[in-house]
Amino acid sequence: MHLSLNEEQTMIQQAARDFATREVMPLARELDLSSRWPTELVKRLGELGLMGVAIPSELGGAGADNVSYALAIEEVSRACASTGVIMSVNNSLVCDPIYKFGNDAQKKEFLTPLASGKKLGCFGLTEPASGSDASHMETVAEKSGDHYVLNGSKNWITNGPHADLVVVFVATSKTLGSKGVSAFIVPKGTPGFTPQKPDHKLGIHAAQSCTIYFENCKVPVSARLGEEGEGFKIAMNTLDGGRIGIAAQAIGIARSAYEEALAYAKERKSFGSPIADKQAIQFMLADMATEIEAARLLVMRAASMKDKKVRHTSESATAKLFASEMATRVTHKALQIHGGYGYSTEYNVERHYRDARITEIYEGTSEIMRLVIASNTLKA
Ligand code: CAA
């Protein structure tokens, strides 16, 4: 088993690292404190080919693989977790399903501008009364001749306040359960499609999310992604990829916290020597480094399975479960190593601690990841 990266993967990792270190990192604290949407960084992500990393170049993407994509998400998230998830949603949750399930006209109209960063997308699955139980939805689409009429609402929609379109999942039949769900591409400006004000959140402040209302929102039949009733499988298949992105985001956050804790431990003196000389601190740093490496291996496995087009539902869930809980543990230790300073906004570590927490919740909670892993294990 070869664990080394190939030339293209190394190049993309390095390019993402350079961009993130030079352009993203200097803005991260201000973005967090002001909850400002990073317009300039979203534009740069597009210019650098980071909005459609694994989409073929003839469709506007960078034409790279999913391993490269995960490495790029890690680098950007290391600099700013908010920018990382904006990128992850556009790549994994919007470009990927249109690439896999869209027809030629949808790819031309929507995918090419999304993958090249000229447009931004969001993904509408969660509703006020259903998050984990994703097939149980209240938002409906009624067919009438050559169009559907959508009514309902979706919430916690990352990128929602700024997106040019949403890939939204709605019930076209309320009696068929998961087989009654269909997916639609709804562009901003469609009458009856109204994004609300950004949500207030514990972390990832700059990655604005919101509720979106659909009130008698009329879309043509040609806006449907895939066949009627295929929507739930499209959503689940999409999340198999999305969870790789969130796991990579978690690694980026953890790495940042670890690197800052390591530097601080070398500088900060107590009882006459740097705290890095104390075994209690060394053990924490060793555990942090080990867990980050372990999470990355899980992410690389899931991403390379996706590249080989092998079903990776369980491997993605495993990577996300471990990486997100690891990020919580690592950022907790990093804050502890910083002592009182870690609790202050003077240092970045409190931001990493807050940002890490969402990775255990969005794109499937840790509890849902355990259910997915268990159900696949029991089937095997
Ligand atoms: N790929 C393809 N098909 C799949 C699949 C997958 N990964 N997982 C399930 N399916 C299929 C099943 O095979 C089944 O098909 P058949 O009926 O033909 O056999 C069908 O889908 C229904 O499957 P289940 O019975 O397993 O479905 P369920 O209702 O029990 O739900 C679940 C399963 C895993 C709990 C699912 O609802 C789930 O993943 N919930 C979490 C939702 C989630 O992750 N939400 C995140 C929102 S997006 C977000 O967070 C974005 C953001 O802000 C960044």
What can you see in these coordinates?
The chain is an alpha+beta fold. The protein folds into three domains: 7-120, Butyryl-Coa Dehydrogenase, subunit A, domain 1 (Orthogonal Bundle), CATH 1.10.540.10; 122-231, Beta Barrel (Butyryl-CoA Dehydrogenase, subunit A, domain 2), CATH 2.40.110.10; 237-379, Up-down Bundle (Butyryl-CoA Dehydrogenase, subunit A, domain 3), CATH 1.20.140.10. It contains ten helices and ten strands. The chain has a four-stranded mixed beta sheet. The protein has a four-stranded antiparallel beta sheet with strand order 2-3-7-6, with helices on one face. Strands 9-10 form a two-stranded antiparallel sheet. α8 runs antiparallel to α10. The site of acetoacetyl-coenzyme A has 24 residues, from α4, β3, α6 and α10.
The level 1 CATH classification of the largest domain is: Mainly Alpha
Tell me the series of helices and strands, N- to C-terminal: HHHHHEEEEEEEEHEEHHHH
| Ions, cofactors and other bound molecules | acetoacetyl-coenzyme A
CATH third-tier fold name of the largest domain? Butyryl-CoA Dehydrogenase, subunit A, domain 3
**How many domain regions?**
3
Summarize, please.
The chain has ten helices and ten strands. The protein has 380 residues and is an alpha+beta fold. The chain binds acetoacetyl-coenzyme A.
